[in-house]
Known about the structure:
This protein is α+β, with helices and mostly antiparallel strands. The protein folds into two domains: 29-51 and 153-220, no CATH class; 53-150 and 229-259, no CATH class. 21% of the residues lie in helices and 41% in strands. The protein contains five helices and 15 strands. The chain has helices at 4-21, 36-50, 128-139, 146-149, 153-157; strands spanning 54-66, 72-76, 79-84, 88-93, 100-104, 108-113, 118-123, 161-172, 175-184, 187-194, 201-208, 216-225, 244-245, 249-252, 255-258. Strands 1, 2, 3, 4, 5, 6, 7, 8, 9, 10, 11, 12 and 13 form a 13-stranded mixed sheet that branches. Strand 4 (88-93) and strand 5 (100-104) form a beta hairpin. The longest helix is centred in the N-terminal third of the chain and has 18 residues, at 4-21. The chain is globular and about 55 Å long.
Amino acid sequence: MRNVERFSRLFLVMVVLVFLVGLPIPSHGQSSAIDPKADQILRKMCDYVAGLKQFSVHTENTIEAILTSGEKIQFDNPASLLVSRPNKLRAGRMGDIVDQEFYYNGKTLTLYDPGKKVYATVNAPPTLEEALDFARESLDIYAPGADFIYKTSYKRLMEDVVSGLYIGTSVVDRVRCHHLAFRGNEVDWQIWIEDGDRPFPRKYIVTSKWMTGAPQFTVMTKGWNLSPRLTEDMFTFAPRKDAKRIDFIRLSSGGMSQR
């Protein structure tokens, strides 16, 4: 929108349409309960993705930042994933904030920055879930799409949830989806799950509740492929001659340490 007046007019029209169709709007006074339909659809999605032996997917990610002036700025950060259970993952991010590649082959974990031409490699646990935990807890590294890769993704997603709603059906990227909304103590989040026998997560929005301006993180998934052509060497990093090896900064209870 070019100005506040046009935005306000559009917002008013949206509010009128919401009341015309009778869409339930979450409120702070709402009872802390999970709509059984929302819970069932979320469980179905989590179980389905957890049961996939291998897949590839691309995501379009947008993260918002609030300037000291109060102005909201968006940054794009597309990502891609290759997963082969039980112990292989390759992921990449490129965009405004970070440019990096993530490799895990069941033995080692490598993070590569193609812009700076530096990489770090460390021995890693033997399963995908353990490696993701290790990366997060010891290295402060979050692999793209990690929330949905875990076989325990339902439990992880619902850890902080106090209420949940089934909003209705919606269309995301020309795909008919179920729209769910959940409230937590720290964040609120919405998810759009494909209707039918392949309940892929198609859109995911996390909204901060306690930061000024309520910044959001948005993920759109595209191009799900359940039969990607995968080879072993795709998951093992092979450094170029001009790439320099460095060490990870390992987190410890007393701070950080180089490893």
